[in-house]
Write a structure and sequence with these properties.
With 269 residues, the protein is mainly alpha-helical. It is 75% helix and 0% strand. Helix 1 crosses helix 7 and helix 9 packs parallel to helix 13. The relative contact order is 0.13. The model has no long low-confidence stretch (mean pLDDT 81).
Length: 269
Amino acid sequence: MKPWIKYVTVSRLAIQESMMYRLDFIVSGVMNLYTLVIPLAMWVTILAGGSEIGGYRLRTMVTYLIFVAVLRNIVLAEGFHYQLADDIENGRLHQHLHKPLHYFVYMLHMHAGRRAVHLLFLALPAAAAMVGLIYADYITAEGLARHVIYIVLSMVLGTGISFLIFFCMGLLSFWVRGYHVIFIFFGNMFWFLSGMWFPPDVFASLSWLLQLLPFPYQVSFTANILSERLTTEAILEGLMYQAGWIVLLGSAAWAMWRLGLRSYQAEGG
């Protein structure tokens, strides 16, 4: 069997596993609407009457939040770090290390399969949202067509950044017991830093700091491309930042994995 076929099979199994619980998937998707409704209601109140903050008016903020709501369900790897941490803490990682699969590549293909299911279910709602925004003159079809390659590339790179961030978080369980508290704290900070509730550039006092971190380059950057707020030069610069974070986070994940395996083997799993 060719090596890549094994990993394709992993993605297929992940898709099948996700499709087994379609009702749970749909219900959780509906329940997650609050993550759009709450910030939307907040910004509608703040920007009512033609107010403007950080260059965002009501229509541009609504467009941004809608795109973020769609993209985060396709791009973010949030949640799988618990599985990684649990494998390490309960010794199941030892079983994976004796299989003819590299654990990192295995988890990457598991994540890809699950994201593919999200993309499948969200394709129609996302298309409807875009048509609605175009019809309302919030965005233009010409702008989407002009930047489609940048949008796809940004989503792919953003997915990679998200996966590496959460992979590194999961690897902390090599050294930390009772990781749940850390993960909960990180989850709350993650939403704030990633621009889920507001665009990173909406507050000038924070924007310079957030732009130096990898978090906005998961979803927020792509949402701004879709919202047609960025020039071609700014898009290319952002893509370079995304590629740079892939290299940095990948190097960090590799180093943590190697160091973690040493301590894991020393403790006997």
